[in-house]
Amino acid sequence: MELRSNKRREYRFRIESIAILLLLLILLSSLGCQSVPAETPLATFTPAPFTISIADGSATNPPNIAPSPPPSPPPTPIPTPEEFSIVWLADTQTIAYHQQNDVFQTMGEWIMANEEPLDIRYIVQTGDMVDNGFQKKQWDSFHILLDQFYGKIPYLPIAGNHDIGVKWENYRGYLDQSFVKELPKDHIFNRGRAVYAEFQAGGVDFLLIGAGWNSEVLSSYWINKTLKAHPDHVAILLFHSYTRVDGGLSRQGVFVHDTIVKNNPNVRLVLSGHLRGNGFRAEEFDDNNDGVMDRTVNAMLYNYQGYDQTNSGQIRVLTFDTATRNIHVFTYSPYTERYFRDEYFKSNEFDLENAF
Ligand SMILES: [Ca+2]
């Protein structure tokens, strides 16, 4: 009996042990199962999906992650309307001939005093700075004017017949001058027989270009090439002779008109001197041959040379209004403190409308 009960006890112990072992196994296995999903969420936290959503702009981003706003487009530059001036010096030859240094002095002082009020961007001169280009004393006199603005306000000159010597017709008298030699080499033709300059004002690009006396034909290919290389610039031409007092064209003017002015739609203004008095012509051109005029070219002659000595020192000012595209013109002598009447417009001042 005792042996049987011992075996029964032993048997129950084994069953209990097996049960405990089974429970332990179940417990361990359940713990082991939990360790697997504990790692899987790591994969869902990779930043890749968010990066892609933001990059492609899709609407699947989590609501708390706003996509970066698209970059603002760069602001379009709006040209600022402004007024600026070009000072136009014509034949100063009689002042240099008489060596009226006080006249040149007051002209230079007036230009510098008005550099800011008139916003003077350029000084141009249409030839005959002196009466004889081989007379050093005349150039010395002219330098009383030139040296006051030279290096401060850009200056673009072309030669007149007197600058190269009426008798000698030799360009050396003009080309040897320091202000010609110092012109930028890539903006000159044949040492300075023709020249050009560019500037921008009020969002408008301008091209100043011209040729000296007896260089119109020689430089015409270069001038046309330069004008065609600047199709969006408003071109202002400088020649010693173009317009006559009666509004017709001089001999040189006919050539310049037919080979340069007519063929370049960017030409809007032609300035000239040489002949005494004032002259004006406005001419319309139909550049694309459709029967509708496309542009007006205004041409002015001004040259008060030969007026008596108490009447000299004239400066013509062209003020460009980039809002209206008008050019306001007046002529003033700071030496005599007088405004000068234009014989075509019959006024001391006038406007060229829609002139550029
Ligand atoms: Ca047309």
Describe the structure.
- The structure is a single chain.
- Residues 31-63 have low confidence and may be disordered.
- It is elongated and about 150 Å long.
- The longest helix has 34 residues, at 2-35.
- It contains 10 helices and 14 strands.
- It folds into 2 domains: 2-56; 84-352, Metallo-dependent phosphatases (Purple Acid Phosphatase, chain A, domain 2, 4-Layer Sandwich), CATH 3.60.21.
- The protein is of the alpha/beta class.
- Helix 5 packs parallel to helix 6 and helix 9 packs parallel to helix 10 (251-261).
- Strands 1, 2, 3, 11, 12, 13 and 14 form a 7-stranded mixed sheet that branches. Strands 4-5-6-7-8-10-9 form a 7-stranded mixed sheet, covered by helices on one side.
- 37% of the residues are buried.
- The protein has helices at residues 2-35, 41-44, 48-56, 93-97, 101-113, 136-149, 172-175, 178-181, 216-228, 251-261; strands spanning 83-89, 120-125, 155-157, 188-189, 194-201, 204-211, 234-239, 267-272, 277-285, 295-303, 315-321, 326-333, 338-339, 349-352.
- Bound molecules: calcium ion.
How is the secondary structure organized here?
Elements: H1 2-35, H2 41-44, H3 48-56, E1 83-89, H4 93-97, H5 101-113, E2 120-125, H6 136-149, E3 155-157, H7 172-175, H8 178-181, E4 188-189, E5 194-201, E6 204-211, H9 216-228, E7 234-239, H10 251-261, E8 267-272, E9 277-285, E10 295-303, E11 315-321, E12 326-333, E13 338-339, E14 349-352
Bound molecules: calcium ion.
